[in-house]
Amino acid sequence: MSEPNVRVHLSFLDLSFRRRQLLLHLGTNESAALMNILAVLITIIAAITFTIKGVVNYQYGIPLFIGSIIGGYFGAHIAIKKGEKLLKIITIILSIGLLAKILLT
Fold first, then answer.
1. Which of 94, 47, 58, 59 is nearest to 74 (CA)?
2. pLDDT tens for the 105 residues of the chain, in order
3. Is the Cβ–Cβ distance between 32 and 10 less than 8 Å?
């Protein structure tokens, strides 16, 4: 079975960030929280759909899921305790390392 050509874009959530703040009278944190809730719901629906269709590669999916949970947890704590600048530096270093690994394999 060929893989479906499906892409989920969350850019509409980002583009409407300011609009939600104005229409719903939300602050920045509340609007960001709403965006995250919507993103989680969309991700859950996509995961269920792909699982039902049998196109999930669990060899990649499970480690990616675990890494996302760990990264989200520690990333949030680092951002709160140490500030956004340190988190950006860590993200850049990890991204460069992963890129090098991909290019060298």
1. 94
2. 444 444 444 455 555 655 665 666 766 667 667 777 888 888 889 989 999 999 999 999 899 889 988 988 888 888 788 877 887 888 899 899 999 999 998
3. no
Residue 75 to residue 96: CA distance in whole angstroms? 17
Burial class (CB in 10 A: 0-12, 13-18, 19+), 31: buried
* Composition of the chain by helix, strand, coil, percent to 5: 80, 0, 20
Please report the sign of the dihedral spanned by the C-alpha atoms of residue 91, residue 83, residue 18, residue 73: positive
Q: What is the CA radius of gyration of the chain?
A: 17
pTM: 0.53
